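[job 4471] stage=fold_predict status=RUNNING
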Amino acid sequence: MNKRDINKLDLVFLAGGRGSRISKFTKAKPKPLIQFKDKHFLSYLVNHYSKYPFEKIFILAGYKGMQIYHKFNKKISNGIEIECLIEKQTLGTGGALAQLRFKLSNDLIVMNADSFIDCNLERFFLQKNKYNSIFLTKNENYLSNNTLANLKINKKSFIDFDGNLMNAGIYFLKKNTIKKIPKKNISLENTILYNLIRKKKIKGKIIKSEFIDIGTYKNLKSAKNNFHRQFEKPAVFLDRDGVINYDYGYVNNIKNFDLKPYVVKGLKYLNKINYNIFIVTNQSGIARGFFTEKNYLLFYKSIKKLLFIKNCYINDMQYCPFLKDAPIKKYNKKSKLRKPDNLMILNLINKWRVIKKNSFMIGDQHSDKIAAKKSKLFFEYSNNNFYDQVKNLITNFSK
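[job 4471] inference complete, writing structure tokens
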């Protein structure tokens, strides 16, 4: 595999269930849109997993699916386009996936939109994956989804029955498996995966993180108290050109994207200490006609892949394509997104649960400093050693 090549994967959220066991909360809204503090459950999942270099995100909705459609369809999360599909008739978790048969060109990571477990998906991007896989977690008296609630892994990593592990609601599925699913009411868990286990054709991977499910009143009550807390983190807001990479003027191609020294080391450090990393970047090259918005997003995906191969990642990104008196009419306007205004920063703070007191911004322009000041963020100009700079800043915050 070329050092800059990774496997192309799409991410799918199964969001079609009626939530009948918690009907008090799902009469007016679908289960994935139950709020935890000020954010929907599904928003936390989309935010969290968009750090990976997925090609596209699909949300398969059913019950009250238009609410999910209006919130997510055609939105961009960390450079990844989201597409929502609403089943016209009840299809079950398997039949819902069959809607993708003619849209797929990549293998999939599939997740239930009513549960969460923090798992590392790195190997599916970096290794050739011949078999379908299920993520498993220890079953501690969890009675739901009985078909996949008592599993084990044999010496060859294939899944078998009669064990103490359970389905964690996350699957790696080959595109050929999806294309064989009939478009009818069929269960992914109870039929498709069950048959693959019985035939010894699906592997398992154990996750030791806490499993959170909102499908019962008891679990929902527990999640309401605790779920949001794990996403409360400080953040570093970074300008791009001149901070992460050398600024050659309207950089828009991976071939002339040269990382500055110690940037990778600094990003790894921030990932390790649980800081969210956000890019906020003016991209007037779009408004000037130097490159298209589509080209910019493809380029950003290339940046994500490059950093991912180097074992670090960006959590989210905001960009401003607008410019007053721009030659491209669509982008010819004054926008509060554009620094020195701070709408890009405010959008990220609103989207994520940012602990502001330990957050800061690094930029190379006076406009970056003004945007940070408007957002009440500590600001520092970029220097030649990004790693030392962020480490010193965080050390000073902890005093």
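[job 4471] summary: The mean pLDDT is 94.
[job 4471] exit 0
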